[in-house]
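Example record

The entry below shows one chain as it appears in the dataset: sequence first, then structure tokens.
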Amino acid sequence: MQPSDAGKWLPIGLDRETGLITLRSVDGVVAIEAACTLEANGRTCRLGDSGGPLVSAQTDPGAGLRYDVDLPEQVTCSLLLSLSEDSRTVLISLSIENEGSAPVRLGRCTLLHVGEGVGGVTLAGDDGEAVYLACTGTTSHTTVRRAAEDGEPCMSRSLLHIVGHGAGRALHLGFTNLGGQTTFGTFTYGPRGIGSLDAVCDFEGFELPPGARVSAGPLMVEALPDLHASLHHWADRVAQTHRPTIWPKTPGGWLGWAWVDAFNSERYEDVLIRNCEAIRRRLPGVDIEYVWVSIGNIKDGMPGNWLQWDTDTFPHGHEWLVQRLGEMGYKLGLWCGAFWLTSCLSELWDEMEDAMLTKDGKPVVALPEWKYGAAGRMKREDRPWITALDPTHPKTKAFLTEVFETYRQWGVRYYMIDFLHAISGSTPGDILYDGYHDKTVVKGPELLRTGLRIVREAAGPETYLLSSSGPTFQNVGFMDACRVGNDYGEGRAINPESYFYPATFVINSAGFWTSHRHASDNMAAAYFTHRKLYVNDSGNVMTVDKPIPVCEAQIAATIFGLSGGPVMLGDDIDRIAEERLALIRKVFPRTPEIATPVDLFDRPAPDYPRVFHQHVTADWGEWDVVGVLNYEDDPLVLPIALDRLGLGGGQYRLWELWNEQYLGTITGELRAVVPPRSARLYRLAAAGEAPAVLSTDMHVLQGKVELSEVRWDEETMTLSGTATRPPGEVGSLYLIAPRGFRVRDPRRLWVAKDAAEQVLIVRLQLAFGDEPVQWRVGFAPLDAPFDQETMDLA
């Protein structure tokens, strides 16, 4: 077998005698024999085991094989199997048709089923240490876990990605159509490897009308030696199915809940305006476009009062606010739990009572107690509760259309659409409902997407929609961005019932639900969807001011700098310490690329991915940036093989941003040393024979956005370039000169000799105005005579 054959499948088919789908890799490492089953009217039927004839039809070469079978309940199924041109991807789907005269209630369709006495899965060389990406498909904490954890069945939503390090394979089963049924994969694992395996589309009791047809799948199956590749392939195929429009710009904005309480200690309007003014004054030229108002704009803070403006918190009204923000160059953004309705809004409640999702004939309880705004001042026994509106009901569509079309007329251009778990009904933590208006819609993703379509169409294509608190994958095509993690960096109002009380922010715990661990874990677990399905919002709010320790503020800047996602500022910019303001500047302008979690499958929970790598390219050069996170109380010493970063066997100059330290020339391995509760951000560039840029202190990517040109002129021995930063900023450019060089004119430079390598580290300070800065540094051979008369005075 040639190495290029690794991951290829032999021709696929269905064994006519056993009725099992057979998948075998060319190299014999992976083999799967599995049944396909369908639950109809409460009875589970296995294709090829119904006693009826099994007909095989070869269609055109690109479509693969079709197997037709008649099942009980007058259901006809067509099982479709296809193999990609490169033989590395299998696609499986099932077409289901009701040929009877009565509806057929569908349950689980299992496209691949391996169980006791049914088929089997082989990973040759498996060492019993397999791990899997346990996708929740939501904003909740997502990690890589050990496959044998607690001996319980392992489950993952929408895609099942099992990594057998001993086998050198990642077995991937991913559903590429996320708009229909609830999809998930389960498996069990023990000393003999994978014992059972199911890839499921769950119709959850959907009634298929007579003469109607519905499909399950496609399911993508791969088993590649590149442990990350199938995750990208899956996202690419999902994008081909749903064709999302990816928001071209990575947003920046302000929320500011960390150190101000706009509900109890200051009026929300005052806090907002003084911070907006401070941003333009203290962060001139930094691209902060949106201002996110959360809850305070709606009357009494009650979900459902979307068009009732709260004049206590914003006394000048919405027209004045939109105009004032526009004058300062901002767009208004709002929080909106679009499908929520508060029980105390009696008139609206009565109007919408037949347009609510129900459970056992009663409106579902989406939240048993609402405690913000006016509700927070009530006795607990008097506080309202919240239900969920049914997106399939015409009243809900009319209501939400009016809300978002009105907001659009007002000039609102940003939303965080929150608590979508209230209507998704199929992922962990969802509100379970059994009653809704339009039963032609499948419960779960299809009902959710019905609601998202209403919001998308009414809000308009020019409006940025961010989803939160609920599903992620299923939002593809309707949301511009998805919160893929928790409320990182957020503060809370001073409320005695909050854990934050009597503070507004929590520090010194990386594992706290608003802190670093959830953000970086979820960023790692979903990185392959970024800018393929939507913009990944894994960071949400960047908060860095004192009394946050400087090392933890640097962690936040590292995560945001490598995430490729939006930044909402959480600090009081009017009062923030100048040195912490400098940290904010280092993550602007936003760059779209997301870093790869190099050790994602090396560190199953309770450990966490620590190494994030991004290859950086500019018009004038390329280099690599590696972020290393340490949330522990002890120092971390971590060797990182350069071949894991895709780097060859050459020599690389190593710089660390947060210490502003040259760490020498490395080959083969980066030895990261990270203090407790800290981050390190390394820059690696190939070592050359001429002076070169070593780093800057102006941006986390250290040269990509602030240096538009860098040129080395061999004849004049001059290194020069163009630098651009917002007016008023002052930054440092660090250069390195190999042995054998000296600086021709040391004036206005800081020149140091590295004791270990005898190279020169040169610092050049740049002050920025309205125009780009042209800089140059002349060099000379070390043995050339030093003559003050010939120094370069430019």
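Notes for this example: The first helix runs from residue 229 to 242. The first strand starts at residue 13 and ends at 14.
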